[in-house]
Amino acid sequence: MSRLSLVVSCLFAAGCGAVADPVDQPGELGPDAGAIEIDAPTTPPPDDIPLAPFDNDSAQAPAVDQFLSPTGERALVYGDQISAPDGDLADFMAFRLPSGSNSQQRVTVTLTCTILGELAVIPRAEVFAGGVQNPRTIACNEGPVFVTIDTTKSQLVRVDVASETPVHLDYELRVDAF
Ligand SMILES: [Ca+2]
To answer: Ligand 1 centroid vs 133 CA: distance in angstroms?
Structure first.
């Protein structure tokens, strides 16, 4: 069998690798194997952080808009998920209180979160009175926070997260008004 015919037949013969390997492997594997082991720890973490599905809510169309009163629904409880930098970045909820003789009322806002991923910025809920520029901010797992609100205005709550590395939040927002 000529040299050419041996090479060609190797393309079709299952055992032909055994002929070539003893020549090539010993010299290449030593230094290469070492380099691979050194590089391995620098590979990025597994991207098994889930994405929150888009739910198409917005400040204009909140996921819930609830009227709270002493004789009706006394609390707003809403649970959902958000994620960053991809997926659904923010959710919006709204609530209103009866406007009695006192236009100021204190409520408690609680944001409870289960967080997956490395966080650079603590996720938060922000409570906006309609049109007010400076929202009151409540951080994840901070516990109940007292917020004094204007009962003549609808209150918007935005829960959001900002992160350049993958982060996923399962949260429950709770507003206790009475
Ligand atoms: Ca959303």
So the answer is: 21
